[in-house]
């Protein structure tokens, strides 16, 4: 299977495993047609349910609980917030590809070369040394020459020449010098010459001592005197002092181990004359200290040298005598093997290739990692000698002789890979006679590599990080050299690298890097996808490869691939990732990619994805943006190219994409376009002439406006990038923002507040529709935000202008009405206010930025709030945080406790400044009434806002960063203190994970989900068909004192475990197991508790459930692992309500969650209902509530997608369906007796989408069926004037209501009262407070009730108590 297919099938299986929104369908390949069909059928039946207006009774709507449509309707398939970004956003500081540490261990520390070879032969042919007694017949061959076949001197020279040729075959560029039967002086001269020539390269010293005595115990080798009448000893330390380091010695003589021992002693006592810090000496010796060389005639006399320099010939000759072929094969044919060693298509070349693969594999599997790197990867000649040394060990051990080395190697002569070599050799030798006879005969390649790849594939199917690594890895490397096996080898290698960082590290340590780098020069189309995949995996581990890629021009390969339309988008995303790593912080890479036109390629694809209606692969868009951002990050030339290519407007369009990662990446790309200038060099730096300041300001305005649109995005990932972008902007425009910020806090009484009373007049003169936009429902400006500034002037009706009018001119101390309008109409007419130093933008823009920064400093996500505070510190606003935990105190941003007007409250006055694209900033300050200004601004501000902002005391307007933490050092140190973006590093994590295989735990998750679905369906059937018996005080199964000082505000029962979750006014959450009566966990929702929690919901209740906590100010926080003490983690946090009505004191948010659609509905003291897609973490719609009153209760249907009901303060009820064109399905006013707020609302159990239950504070409960024209078909007067809570069971025909008079009543859907629960005096004789919350268990008849006295009780009907 080609990797492309492998990847597509993988992606399609993924989408199945994660079962995406059912509504959208989820098949992306033929693998899942059947599932598609099933899903479509389910969907169709669900839709039929919806479309038929039959008023079917409860029972026949759900005749069989196990039928597909019912289970689909009751058991939603949607799973939200389980992406990589939700793992631990708050805690994580993700790191991208590393460029140091562990990863660069695989790189050979310093590549080396053996530059000089000194060959010393002491043969003294025809004179045997005194300590040798030779047998007969005896080994005679030296370098495959019989010394007695010619005159001694000629033989000596021929042997010397042959040895030189043998070495030159391994290292053609090395200079070889031969000394035949030399004296000590000649050897000294040879060594000094070699070292001088080699400089710092390695010198090889080869000593053949077959014609002299054995080395001495002191470690001396023997040479001759001039007249050959004496043997002269040469101490090893002399030799070492001449050759110095780095060096490699080969000693081919009997008792060679003596020399090795002496050398080791020398190294250990450090008496060497060499004074360098590190000794790099390698020794190869033919035998141990007590051994003599083999004399058997089947071996050459220099068997050790022959193994080291002519391994194939030696191996085959040795094997031939032991093989079954020895009778039929003439050994002399071995010398006639056709072909060349470096041509793998010939017999000799293939044998050499297989031998290299086998010896490499043995070494890699047996040697420690560092030793393998040093001996087999650092120096080509050393590597060849050590590969051949393994052969010498095998052959010579068969003759009871043990070659030794320093550093010492473990024994390898019995490694099972030698069997594979023997088999390959036998197959090749069997063809030899016919090939020698007929030179044109076809040579049949060995199956060795095919079989080894199959073995590797078997390992891939069963291996893992915790098992022994695949021993075939070095062979896979060798196979890359061959065209016929290359594709298969690359695909298998890709699968291996996909197993994780450890696999990439292993492959790199084997030496894969130069091979895959070289392959980028091939043009074979079928290799492109897999090569891109392999490089993705390598760069996800080690960023330092960027240098090699640029040096070899590899970036062009990836740009070409990125631009090819036939590749899958996921693979092109990988190419974009590779290019992003190439340019990440690497100026040479940035320059090379700009020359190759990468900016235009990326922008072209972004632009075309906007044109197409089809959904572009989000990963591709994300990486195009990240690649662009990294390309022009801190690189002015690239920024100018991007600006001229309209990059800001292209990237800005991505800010409404459904995937948070794409939006965050687009913000990153826009942010890196902002020039983080210093005032000293903002004018005309490096090529700024091409792009004049007006032009630059125009682009800056487009960028900032785009960013302000997403400052209240639902995803913390996006908001974090916006905060970082605003920090860059604040850095570049520090002075202007500081003066604006300072103006807000100026203590002159005539400054800002004096202009507030005249605000209405200004608005009147400037534009009529600003006032209406502030008072009426929020007007959403269309998508073309750039149009506001494009034509060179700011239209006065735009939110920009409003802010300008609002906040007065910071450049003048007495910003009267006149100066306000003046700035707006004159200064901004060309988009900028002229200023002597850097080019400022208009003040309206600065005001909006300051507001946005303040909003970010109060973000519900702690990480973003701290980023926001850092941004404010750049513009000189310090923030004092007081964490107040006492009950009743308002200690949270946005909940004012005083009516005194303050500059800061004034600052946040307008709700329309952020009306663009429906993104409304969650600033919740009260509108200041017009009254004489207070003199003490700071105390007023402190009372308004618990996160207090105050300007720093600035010595001079130019004092750099005002924050004492940041100091005012030099520009560069200041810049390094800017908060760093995390989206790039976070996104890199995607490619570190396995991309081709589904995670192992998915089966376990599916099994658990099936079990829960079975449990749910059984219990749903029980709820539907069994009549509910009485529920009263006797049915209490548990009671829990939560110890909340302010009483229980809201309560929730977990569906699949006996757990109850409760929360109080101070946003403390406690989780209790009611069967074991034990507290599991307790934590604070956040550090600045205020108005309490309005709702607890479970997300993904059939899977790993998440706890959604909605605060009364509309802030949503979602927690995971919340039942484990101290282990709770914040998954995401956002403000669900934006743009509340003027003059509103508190938001009293109401929210509800709909698992089917993945939507969160939120409203409160605002004139619309916010519709959030929680999976996309995006505000998808703002539905006008069509009423002047605020919403007091909200309920979404748990079986019908997109349907929800709202109850209003004036007693009216409206039903909405987001699929209907105008959203509102019907409006009615059931509570007519007295106009009281709707306290609770809910859909009646079953598949009937038109039946609603609504309860008002007056105490009446109304049953409505919106398809009949009568307003209500049943009314229950439950409690007189004191109803406080309503609960409707999801599946059983039962509802419950609670009152302020400590009373709970339970009714059937027919209105029959099933029971009354009276709260008793507790044993402490406390009076119990009013019932504050009621909730039913989703699948059992269990009722949990919380009261104002911190007590939570759980009641079960008689049937459930058997549980």
Give a structural overview.
Residues 111-264 form the Raptor N-terminal CASPase-like domain. Keywords: Repeat, WD repeat. One of its GO terms (cellular component) is TORC1 complex. The two termini are 52 Å apart. The chain is built from 44 helices and 38 strands. Mean pLDDT is 78; it is low at 8-69, 678-690, 748-838, 881-971 and 1321-1327. The strands form ten sheets. Strands 2-1-3-6-7-8 form a six-stranded mixed beta sheet, sandwiched between helices. A four-stranded antiparallel beta sheet has the order 11-38-37-36, with no helix packed on it. Strand 36 (1331-1336) and strand 37 form a beta hairpin. Among the domains are: 3-94 and 999-1016, no CATH class; 100-292, Rossmann fold (3-Layer(aba) Sandwich); 717-981, no CATH class.
Strand order of the largest sheet: 2-1-3-6-7-8
Task: Kindly report how far apart the N and C termini lie.
Answer: 52 Å
* Tally of individual helices: 44
* Largest sheet data: 6 strands, mixed
**Beta content:** 15-25%
Low-confidence stretches: 8-69, 678-690, 748-838, 881-971, 1321-1327
Helix percent reads 25-40%
């Amino acid at each position: 299977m080609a990797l492309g297919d492998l990847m597509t099938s993988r992606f399609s299986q993924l989408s199945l495993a994660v079962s995406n929104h059912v509504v959208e369908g989820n098949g992306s390949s033929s693998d899942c047609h059947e599932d598609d069909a099933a899903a479509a059928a389910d969907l169709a039946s669900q839709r039929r349910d919806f479309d038929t207006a039959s008023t079917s009774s409860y029972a026949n709507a759900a005749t069989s609980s196990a039928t597909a449509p019912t289970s689909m309707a009751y058991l939603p398939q949607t799973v939200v917030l389980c992406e990589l970004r939700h793992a631990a956003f708050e805690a994580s500081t993700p790191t991208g590809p590393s460029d140091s540490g562990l990863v660069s261990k695989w790189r050979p520390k310093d590549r080396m070369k053996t530059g000089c070879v000194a060959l010393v032969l002491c043969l003294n042919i025809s004179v045997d040394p005194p300590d040798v007694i030779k047998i007969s017949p005896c080994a005679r061959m030296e370098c495959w020459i019989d010394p007695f076949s010619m005159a001694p001197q000629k033989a000596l020279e021929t042997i010397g020449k042959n040895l030189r040729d043998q070495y030159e075959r391994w290292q053609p560029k090395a200079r070889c010098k031969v000394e035949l039967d030399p004296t000590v002086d000649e050897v000294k001269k040879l060594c000094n010459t070699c070292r001088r020539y080699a400089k710092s390269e390695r010198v090889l010293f080869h000593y053949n001592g077959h014609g002299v005595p054995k080395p001495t115990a002191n470690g001396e080798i023997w040479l001759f005197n001039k007249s050959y009448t004496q043997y002269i000893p040469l101490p090893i330390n002399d030799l070492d002092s001449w050759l110095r380091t780095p060096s490699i010695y080969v000693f081919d003589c009997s008792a060679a181990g003596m020399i090795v021992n002496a050398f080791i002693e020398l190294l250990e006592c450090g008496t060497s004359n060499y004074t360098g810090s590190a000794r790099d000496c390698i020794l190869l010796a033919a035998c141990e200290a007590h051994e003599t060389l083999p004399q058997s005639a089947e071996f050459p006399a220099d068997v050790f040298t022959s193994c080291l320099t002519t391994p194939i010939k030696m191996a085959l000759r040795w094997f031939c005598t032991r093989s079954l072929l020895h009778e039929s094969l003439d050994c002399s044919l071995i010398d006639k093997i056709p072909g060349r060693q470096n041509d793998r298509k010939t017999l000799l070349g293939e044998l050499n290739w297989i031998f290299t693969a086998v010896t490499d594999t043995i070494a890699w599997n047996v040697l420690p990692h560092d030793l393998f790197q040093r001996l087999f990867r650092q120096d080509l000649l050393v590597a060849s000698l050590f590969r051949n040394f393994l052969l010498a060990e095998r052959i010579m051990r068969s003759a009871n002789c043990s070659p030794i080395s320093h550093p010492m190697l473990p024994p390898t002569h019995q490694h099972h890979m030698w069997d594979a070599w023997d088999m390959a050799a036998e197959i090749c030798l069997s063809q030899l006679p016919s090939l020698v006879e007929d030179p044109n005969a076809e040579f049949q390649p060995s199956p060795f590599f095919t079989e080894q790849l199959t073995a590797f594939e078997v390992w891939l199917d069963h291996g893992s990080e915790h098992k022994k690594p695949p021993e075939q890895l070095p062979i896979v490397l060798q196979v890359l050299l061959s065209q016929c096996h290359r594709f298969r080898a690359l695909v298998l290698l890709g699968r291996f690298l996909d197993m994780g960082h450890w696999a990439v590290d292993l492959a790199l340590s084997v030496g894969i890097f130069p091979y895959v780098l070289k392959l980028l020069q091939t043009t074979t189309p079928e290799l492109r996808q897999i090569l891109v995949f392999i490089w993705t995996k390598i760069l996800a581990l080690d960023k330092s490869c960027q240098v090699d890629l640029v040096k070899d021009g590899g970036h062009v390969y990836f740009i070409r691939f990125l631009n090819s339309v036939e590749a899958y988008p996921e693979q092109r995303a990988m190419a974009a990732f590779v290019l992003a790593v190439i340019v990440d912080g690497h100026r040479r890479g940035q320059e090379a990619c700009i020359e190759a036109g990468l900016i235009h390629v990326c922008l072209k694809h972004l632009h075309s994805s906007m044109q197409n209606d089809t959904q572009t692969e989000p990963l591709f868009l994300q990486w195009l943006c990240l690649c662009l951002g990294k390309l022009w990050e801190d690189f002015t030339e690239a920024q100018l190219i991007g600006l001229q290519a309209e990059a800001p407007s292209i990237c800005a369009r991505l800010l409404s994409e459904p995937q948070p990662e794409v939006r965050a990446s687009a913000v990153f790309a826009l942010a890196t376009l902002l020039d983080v200038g210093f005032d000293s060099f903002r004018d005309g730096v490096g090529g700024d002439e091409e792009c004049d300041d007006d032009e630059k300001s125009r682009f800056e305005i487009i960028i900032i406006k785009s960013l302000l649109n997403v400052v209240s995005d639902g995803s913390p990932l996006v908001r974090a990038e916006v905060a970082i972008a605003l920090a860059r902007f604040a850095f570049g425009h520090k002075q202007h923002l500081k003066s604006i910020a300072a103006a807000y806090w100026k203590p002159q009484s005539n400054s800002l507040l004096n202009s507030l009373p005249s605000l209405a007049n200004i608005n009147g003169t400037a534009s009529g529709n600003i006032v209406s936009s502030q008072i009426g429902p929020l007007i959403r400006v269309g998508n073309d935000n750039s149009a506001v500034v494009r034509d060179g002037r700011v239209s006065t009706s735009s939110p920009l202008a409003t802010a300008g009018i609002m906040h007065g001119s910071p450049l003048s101390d007495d910003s009267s009405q006149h100066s306000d309008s003046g700035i707006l109409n004159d200064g901004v007419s060309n988009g900028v206010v002229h200023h002597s130093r850097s080019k400022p933008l208009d003040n309206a823009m600065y005001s909006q930025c300051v507001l946005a920064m303040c909003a970010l400093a109060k973000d519900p996500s702690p990480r973003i709030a701290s980023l926001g505070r850092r941004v404010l510190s750049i513009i000189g606003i310090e923030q004092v945080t007081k964490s107040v935990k006492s009950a009743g105190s308002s200690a949270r941003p946005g909940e004012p406790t005083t009516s005194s007007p303050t500059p800061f409250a004034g600052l946040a006055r307008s709700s329309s400044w952020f009306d663009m694209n429906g993104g409304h900033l969650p600033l919740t300050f009260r509108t200041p009434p017009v009254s004489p200004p207070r003199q003490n601004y700071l105390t007023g501000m402190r009372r308004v806002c618990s996160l207090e902002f105050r300007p720093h005391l600035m010595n001079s307007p130019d004092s750099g960063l005002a924050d004492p933490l940041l100091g005012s050092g030099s520009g560069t140190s200041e810049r390094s203190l800017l908060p760093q973006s995390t989206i790039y590093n976070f996104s890199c994590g995607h490619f570190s994970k396995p991309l081709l295989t589904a995670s192992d735990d998915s089966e376990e998750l599916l099994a658990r989900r099936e079990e829960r679905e079975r449990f749910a369906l059984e219990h749903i059937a029980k709820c539907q068909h069994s009549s509910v018996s009485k529920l009263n005080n006797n049915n209490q199964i548990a009671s829990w004192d939560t110890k909340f000082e302010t009483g229980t505000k809201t309560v929730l029962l977990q569906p699949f475990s006996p757990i109850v979750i409760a929360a109080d006014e101070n946003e403390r959450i406690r989780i209790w197991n009611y069967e074991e009566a034990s507290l599991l966990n307790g934590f604070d929702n956040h550090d600045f508790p205020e108005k309490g929690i309005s709702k607890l919901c479970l997300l993904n209740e059939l899977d790993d459930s998440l706890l959604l906590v909605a605060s009364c100010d509309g802030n949503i926080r979602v927690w995971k692992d919340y039942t484990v003490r101290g282990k709770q983690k914040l998954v995401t946090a956002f403000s669900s309500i934006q743009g509340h009505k003027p003059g509103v004191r508190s938001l009293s948010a109401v929210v509800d969650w709909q698992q089917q659609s993945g939507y969160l509905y939120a409203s409160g003291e605002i004139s619309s209902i916010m519709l959030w897609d929680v999976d996309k973490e995006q505000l998808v719609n703002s539905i006008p509530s069509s009423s002047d009153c605020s919403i007091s209760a909200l309920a979404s249907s748990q079986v019908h997608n997109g349907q929800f009901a709202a109850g209003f303060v004036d007693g009216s009820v409206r039903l909405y369906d987001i699929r209907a064109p105008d959203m509102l399905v019907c409006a009615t006013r059931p509570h007519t007796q007295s106009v009281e707020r709707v306290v609770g609302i809910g859909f009646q159990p079953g598949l009937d989408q038109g039946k609603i239950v609504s309860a008002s504070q007056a105490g009446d409960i109304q049953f409505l069926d919106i398809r009949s024209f009568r307003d209500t078909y049943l009314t229950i007067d439950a409690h007189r004037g004191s109803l406080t809570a309503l609960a409707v069971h999801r599946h059983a025909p039962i509802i419950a209501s609670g009152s302020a008079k400590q009373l709970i009543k339970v009714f059937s859907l027919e209105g029959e009262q099933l029971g009354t629960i009276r709260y008793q005096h507790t044993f402490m004789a406390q009076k119990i407070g009013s019932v504050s919350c009621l909730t039913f268990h989703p699948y059992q008849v269990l009722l949990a009730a919380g009261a104002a006295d911190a007590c939570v009780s759980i009641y079960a009907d008689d049937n459930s108590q058997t549980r």
